[in-house]
């Protein structure tokens, strides 16, 4: 897929694709409204497009740390019954879900 | 309700009395429960009030004190926790329908530390759903009202905790600040509110909004109380990889020092937009500090103005991933459907509110194939610019002073349905989330309609001691009647 | 020796393998619940494993060390690295993202030499977390399709994995099988993983394409769910033929992920790559970079044991057998090479010891090396025939050792001398002239009958090879 330098206007089709990726069912109404709102916001982001950022390192950590480790030692586990008691559906000590289709990896 | 916080009892005072046995923790709790009973119906600070649990905890503390034991520096102090901090067996909702029915099987590190210090949790407070908002109007359980004027918002997203302290429901509240969510409601409610350096306080058990920006901090009635709270909850946590692995100097000791010789920066290229009453109070604050022995210097933070834009790419991007786990499989709400994929779509559509969906969509878009470099990647570079600009400014100034909020508390619905109008509430607070540096709101008199106005003190990475010295000086001069 | 038929015509096969191995740690990659196979469902769980709100990952130092061992054993460069989130929804992926290494993996640019001398490049060997397990209820045979619902066990979620990605340097099903075998040997030898394909602690995905010499590479398909070393070869062979059949009948190969089905020995479409994956990778903000120091890398490197390839050539040198011979390969695979070498050091004959060990010891040898050394000596000096030595060996094995010469004496075993054998051969020719006639006219079977007569008359004390030689000498 091309990497547009200048963001393009967002389309309802793009919003629909994003909604699918995010697993958010949207109605036709919502799709129209979200398209308008996202478009408005992305337009606003044009102000950083004017900046020359070619020599700038992206900042991903607000406080630079490295090599943070945990010892390989077992700690007590959570109680399965306590966890499954608040699950939407459980059976045989496991979480129960509807058939898994359309998700094959 | 008094607009300045000095008339309410401080946590330090309460802890001292309960600790030395001159006052019972149970009495403290009962008094607060009485205030809650009187005003909570019009304020709605809480998602849940834990009256019985608080009484039981108080009884235990009183027993310890009578047995000659020391329950800790927060003995008998009542606290309210923003409802995005995990509390074992107690509903933790993020003010979202999607977490309906969930009982966390574990406590957040902050909750452990508070209990271990003798504090008593009185309730979980309302917030903008998943901490996304600046007014606490975006709660699935209805808005919180500002104790100073119940027709107005308390700010947000930690509006419930700010209101709890302002209304006298608890001595202390805890919130989380991703783009201003502690400092802005503190300003609107007239209390002290602190966002420490990123990594100062453990995030373990804080339900993530944007992981690289979130920090927990206190709401208090005094600068000294805020120092006390950070002395208790700050410090390294091996369960949080981003927690700074060092001991922090005592902030209660730091505020013993005055501001003589400190250089206080005025950002000359600060984005405009603050109301006149707010600007006026800021000027008084500069004068106050000068009179107290500080020098005022001009600094520039050119990238400050791009903070809002960068933030509204970075925070939603991280949020879109952090909130993907609410899928109806392991906990919380599920809307049944014929297959799992369909179940995801309907559950999440029904479980999340409008603003949360908007940000998930925006964040998903910003990270998606083909747009990463144009949006998210650029925002990370702007983040670096902002951080570098602050770094340069702090070579000339020990702390910076800005407005916290562009305005005093506004009326419900005032920001309408234009999301950008609401986002502008955080213009002055967001840049320090991006740089990971500390900032705090200090109540500094009143503005329009007699409502509280705060000033924001900013400092460099781990420069909390300096920030607190400045805040203490402002508080001292204000209560000394200098206004 | 090939198990597979090879490709028709001049088709060429290009294979790249992605192998996931579970690391042999006590705990998960980012949390402290046990990394243990076979426990009750959802008992090895903690807030991180369940993807609970508020939970945060902390990297397991031992997992990093094991991942570095893998990288160094595969001749990779170990480098500073980061973790990303790979975002996708699946009910056994609790956070709806997998924490994995993306553009900055721990290990890059290595290689693995197969026993037959083929060098396979290793592109990368990166760290990531495993997913949980789904069980499909209802429908047929536990398959996803047609199931009425599924159950999720998260015990495996968060188990540390290393994904080893080969370059497309493999060009036959045999080499693919050999690569997996060799890799497994290395992983076990360095203690990084138990590498059991049947328990899923080692999982192989194969990228397969075919093309004609000189033509550009074909469209590749990825085969998943290959659960044994044998299936690796069979699945690749099947897939290659499927692609060739498609092309030869004028159709195009479509880029797909395909599923190997053991029950019908075929690959099936899992999904088409056309619905482009969009994993929205970004740096995991809850973790910090991993920057292994030169000193740490050196320490891990120094602690690596001798690897199978080096052990094979050492054993080959000691026994005079080819390094890729079956005996050398098997004995090293079983970890019995040290023992064979110690038989040699105890004065024994290493070549005979290699054969004994390969044939008599499935597991670790229990006979003291010196005892086996004595037996090999008796055999090579001619005191015992190969057949007699086998009898003594069986007794040594049964008793867990013993004095070979005493055992031989007790059984009345001794090789008889050449003149006695000559006499017995002549007697056998006289006893069965029919067989002798046939043998002389080239019937090989007839020789067996004559040898049998001699062996019977000698009560097994004659050396079969010597008898055969003598018969051939007499005929000419
Ligand atoms: Mg892969
Ligand atoms: Zn993988």
How does this model look, in words?
The complex is a heterotrimer of chains A (105), B (483) and C (476). Chain A has 105 residues and is mainly α. Chain A has a domain of 38 residues. Chain A contains four helices and three strands; from the N terminus they run αααβαββ. Chain A is flat and about 55 Å long. The model of chain A has no long low-confidence stretch (mean pLDDT 89). With 483 residues, chain B is an alpha/beta fold. Chain B is built from 16 helices and eleven strands. Chain B has an eleven-stranded mixed β-sheet with strand order 1-3-2-4-6-5-10-11-9-7-8, sandwiched between helices. In chain B, helix 2 packs antiparallel against helix 3, helix 10 crosses helix 12 and helix 10 crosses helix 13. Chain C starts with 11 loop residues before the first strand and ends with a helix. In chain C, 48% of the residues are buried. The chains are: A mainly alpha (105), B alpha/beta (483), C alpha+beta (476). Strand 3 of chain A pairs antiparallel with strand 9 of chain C. Bound molecules: magnesium ion (MG) and zinc ion (ZN). The site of zinc ion has 3 residues of chain C, from loops.
Q: In terms of topology, how is this protein built?
A:
The complex is a heterotrimer of chains A (105), B (483) and C (476).
Chain A: H1 12-21, H2 28-44, H3 46-49, E1 69-70, H4 80-85, E2 90-91, E3 94-97
Chain B: H1 11-19, H2 25-43, E1 46-49, H3 51-66, E2 78-82, H4 109-116, E3 120-125, H5 159-166, E4 172-177, H6 183-189, E5 192-195, E6 215-220, H7 223-233, H8 251-254, E7 263-267, H9 276-291, E8 295-299, H10 307-322, H11 340-351, H12 354-367, H13 373-396, E9 399-403, H14 419-423, H15 430-435, E10 439-446, E11 452-459, H16 464-479
Parallel strand pairs in B: 2-3, 2-4, 7-8, 7-9
Antiparallel strand pairs in B: 1-3, 4-6, 5-6, 5-10, 9-11, 10-11
Chain C: E1 12-22, E2 59-60, H1 61-73, E3 77-78, E4 84-87, E5 97-100, E6 107-113, E7 119-129, E8 133-137, E9 149-153, E10 160-166, H2 173-189, E11 202-211, E12 221-226, H3 229-248, E13 256-261, E14 266-272, E15 282-283, H4 294-302, H5 308-319, H6 326-333, H7 337-345, H8 350-360, H9 369-380, H10 386-399, H11 404-410, H12 418-431, H13 433-440, H14 444-457, H15 464-475
Parallel strand pairs in C: 12-13
Antiparallel strand pairs in C: 1-10, 1-11, 3-6, 4-5, 4-15, 6-7, 7-10, 8-9, 11-12, 13-14
Helix pairs in contact in C: 2-3, 5-6, 5-7, 6-8, 7-8, 7-9, 9-10, 12-14, 12-15, 13-14, 14-15
Zinc ion binds at residues 20, 128, 163 of chain C.
């Amino acid at each position: 897929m091309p990497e547009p330098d200048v963001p393009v206007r967002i389309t309802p089709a793009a919003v629909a694709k994003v909604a699918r990726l995010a697993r958010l069912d949207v109605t036709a109404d919502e799709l129209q409204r979200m398209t308008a709102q996202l478009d408005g916001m992305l337009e606003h982001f044009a102000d950083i497009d004017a900046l020359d950022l070619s020599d700038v390192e992206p900042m991903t950590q607000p406080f630079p740390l490295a090599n943070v480790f945990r010892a390989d030692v077992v700690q007590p586990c959570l109680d399965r019954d306590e966890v499954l008691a608040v699950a939407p559906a459980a059976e045989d000590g496991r979480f129960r879900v509807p058939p898994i289709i359309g998700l094959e990896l | 309700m008094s607009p300045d916080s000095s008339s309410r009892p401080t946590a330090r005072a309460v802890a001292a009395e309960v600790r030395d046995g001159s006052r019972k923790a149970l009495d403290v709790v009962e008094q607060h429960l009485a205030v809650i009973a009187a005003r909570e119906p019009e304020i709605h600070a809480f998602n849940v009030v834990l009256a019985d649990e608080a009484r039981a905890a108080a009884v235990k503390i009183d027993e310890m004190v009578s047995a000659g034991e020391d329950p800790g520096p927060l003995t008998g102090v009542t606290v309210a926790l923003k409802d995005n901090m995990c509390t074992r067996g107690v509903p933790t909702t993020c003010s979202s329908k999607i977490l309906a029915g969930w009982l966390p099987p574990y406590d957040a590190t902050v909750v452990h530390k508070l209990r271990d210090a003798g504090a008593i949790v009185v309730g979980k407070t309302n917030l903008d759903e998943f901490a996304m908002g600046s007014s606490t109007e975006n709660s699935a359980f209805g808005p919180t009202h500002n104790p100073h004027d119940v027709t107005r918002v308390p700010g947000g997203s930690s509006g419930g905790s700010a209101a709890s302290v302002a209304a006298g429901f608890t001595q202390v509240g805890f919130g989380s600040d991703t783009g201003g969510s502690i400092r802005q409601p503190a300003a609107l409610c007239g209390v002290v509110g602190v966002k420490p350096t990123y990594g100062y306080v453990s995030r373990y058990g804080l339900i993530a909004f944007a992981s690289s920006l979130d920090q927990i901090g206190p709401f208090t009635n005094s600068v000294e109380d805020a120092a006390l709270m950070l002395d208790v909850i700050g410090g390294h946590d091996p369960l949080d990889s981003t927690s700074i692995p060092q001991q922090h100097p005592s902030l209660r000791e730091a505020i013993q020092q005055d501001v003589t010789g400190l250089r206080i920066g005025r950002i000359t290229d600060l984005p405009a937009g603050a109301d006149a009453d707010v600007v006026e109070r800021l000027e008084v604050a500069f004068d106050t500090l000068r009179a107290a022995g500080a020098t005022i210097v001009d600094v520039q933070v050119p990238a400050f103005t791009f903070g809002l834009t960068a933030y509204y790419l970075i925070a939603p991007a991280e949020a879109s991933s952090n909130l993907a786990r609410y899928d109806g499989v392991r906990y919380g709400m599920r809307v049944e459907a014929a297959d799992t994929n369909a179940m995801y779509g309907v559950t999440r559509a029904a479980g999340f509110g409008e603003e949360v969906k908007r940000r998930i969509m925006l964040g998903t878009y910003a990270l998606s194939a083909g747009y990463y470099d144009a949006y998210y990647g650029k925002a990370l570079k702007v983040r670096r610019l902002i951080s570098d600009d602050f770094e340069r400014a702090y070579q000339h100034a020990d702390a910076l002073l800005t407005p916290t909020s562009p305005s005093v508390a506004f009326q419900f619905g005032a920001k309408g349905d234009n999301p950008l109008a609401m986002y502008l509430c955080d213009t002055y607070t967001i840049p320090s989330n991006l740089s990971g540096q500390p900032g705090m709101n200090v109540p500094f008199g009143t503005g329009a309609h007699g409502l509280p106005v705060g000033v924001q003190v900013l400092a460099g990475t781990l420069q909390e001691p300096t920030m607190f010295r400045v805040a203490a000086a402002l508080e001292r001069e204000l209560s000394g009647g200098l206004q | 020796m090939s198990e597979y038929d090879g490709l028709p015509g001049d088709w060429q096969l290009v294979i790249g393998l992605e192998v996931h191995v579970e690391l042999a740690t006590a705990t998960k990659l980012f949390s402290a619940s046990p990394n243990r196979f076979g426990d009750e469902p959802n008992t090895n769980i903690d807030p991180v494993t369940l993807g609970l709100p508020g939970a945060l990952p902390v990297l397991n130092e031992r997992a990093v060390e094991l991942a570095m061992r893998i990288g160094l054993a595969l001749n990779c460069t170990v480098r500073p690295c980061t973790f990303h989130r790979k975002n996708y929804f699946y009910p056994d992926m609790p956070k709806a993202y997998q924490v994995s290494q993306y553009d900055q993996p721990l290990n890059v640019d290595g290689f693995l030499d197969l026993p037959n001398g083929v060098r396979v490049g290793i592109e990368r060997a990166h760290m990531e977390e495993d997913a949980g397990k789904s069980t499909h209820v209802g429908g047929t045979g536990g398959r996803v399709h047609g199931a009425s619902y599924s159950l999720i066990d998260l015990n495996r979620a968060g188990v540390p994995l290393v994904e080893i990605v080969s370059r497309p340097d493999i060009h036959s099903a045999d080499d693919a099988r050999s690569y997996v075998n060799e890799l497994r040997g290395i992983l076990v030898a360095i203690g990084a993983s138990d590498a059991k394909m049947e328990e899923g602690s080692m999982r192989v995905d194969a990228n397969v394409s075919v093309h004609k010499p000189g033509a550009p590479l074909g469209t590749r398909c990825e085969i998943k769910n290959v659960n044994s070393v044998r299936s690796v070869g069979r699945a690749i062979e099947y897939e290659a033929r499927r692609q060739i059949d498609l092309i030869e009948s004028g159709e195009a190969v479509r880029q797909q992920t395909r599923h190997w089905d053991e029950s019908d020995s075929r690959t099936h479409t899992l999904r088409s790559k056309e619905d482009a994956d969009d994993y929205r990778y970004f740096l995991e903000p809850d973790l910090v970079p991993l920057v292994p120091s030169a000193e740490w890398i050196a320490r891990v490197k120094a602690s690596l044991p001798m690897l199978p390839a080096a052990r094979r050539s050492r054993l080959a040198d000691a026994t005079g057998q080819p390094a890729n011979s079956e005996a050398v390969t098997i004995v090293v695979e079983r970890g019995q090479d040290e023992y064979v070498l110690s038989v040699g050091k105890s004065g024994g004959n290493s070549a005979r010891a290699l054969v004994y060990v390969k044939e008599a010891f499935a597991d670790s040898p229990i006979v003291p090396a010196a005892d086996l050394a004595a037996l090999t000596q008796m055999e090579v000096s001619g005191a015992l025939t190969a057949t007699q030595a086998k009898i003594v060996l069986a007794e040594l094995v049964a008793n867990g050792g013993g004095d070979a010469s005493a055992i031989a004496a007790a059984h009345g075993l001794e090789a008889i001398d050449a003149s006695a054998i000559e006499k017995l051969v002549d007697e056998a020719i006289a006893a069965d002239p029919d067989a002798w006639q046939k043998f002389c006219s080239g019937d090989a079977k007839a020789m067996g009958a004559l040898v049998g007569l001699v062996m019977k008359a000698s009560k097994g004390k004659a050396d079969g090879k010597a008898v055969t030689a003598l018969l051939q000498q007499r005929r000419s």
